[in-house]
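1st attempt posting a full record on here, be nice pls
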Amino acid sequence: YMGIYSMGIYDYLRYTFWIGMWGGLAIAAFIIVAILCIRYKLSKKRQSIKKNKYADPTALIVSFFHPFCYDMGGGEKVLYKILESIFKNEASLTELLQRNLKVAIYTAAIESPFEILSRVKNRFDIDLPIDKVEFVKLRKGDYIKSERYPTFTLLKQALGSAVVVFEALWNHPADILFDTMGFGWIYPVAKLICPNLKIISYSHYPFISEDMIAKVANRTSDFNNQSQVASSRWKTKIKCMYYWTILLLYKAVGRFADLIMANSTWTFNHFASLWSANHAALRKLYPCLLYTSPSPRDATLSRMPSSA
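the predicted structure (as tokens):
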């Protein structure tokens, strides 16, 4: 220590620079090695699942990222309509892909698969084969709930979703990750840790948009802009800077999706603007019925801009 204290300012800065540089390189090397190890582990685990669990090394694992698949709302209707379509066309899809499809849903539900699919039948009149849908339990599924984060909600949800998708792929690696909740933040993490993963995105609305920022900038009180923020000029400016930062990051994550599906013209146009760098991957779908009662005669129907 006496040697450091006796250094001149130039020597001290040079010493600090080299310590920082080598320390940074060591941390970067550790992170790279850790990622490579995780990728190798998940690749081997995926092959092991296909060989030992499915008895088919060529199987195609399609996993749906939908932790709240038990809520039975519009997003869940889309999820189960997609599954219904897959199972109705399973033979032709297998012939087309020359691979057997194995379907899984990442879920935070505490209910059993039988209970969930029974609710799907009662709520949407969609009958899915219980032996062909695997529910992969997530312990950290509530990390993406907005209610969990009263402040800096968007940032914390983004970080929480990265934790959730890591747990999901660690428990059950996939060949295709189908995000039916619109959490774009999971795409770079999923691609980073799971080799040769394809990502399909279906979204009801963007996670953040310029419309949201405009509302904050205009100092309009709303569910995402509390009155104490709207009434303060400097708090509004800080929040706008925070939102713009989130928006720029959100624009970047869209590059990692292989196919992006929007459920309406409004949503499609917003994604075309936000994820313009990945415009070739965008598709627009048509509305589907949100709710169908178990009895067709007593059907109560309402429309929402969503589609399978």
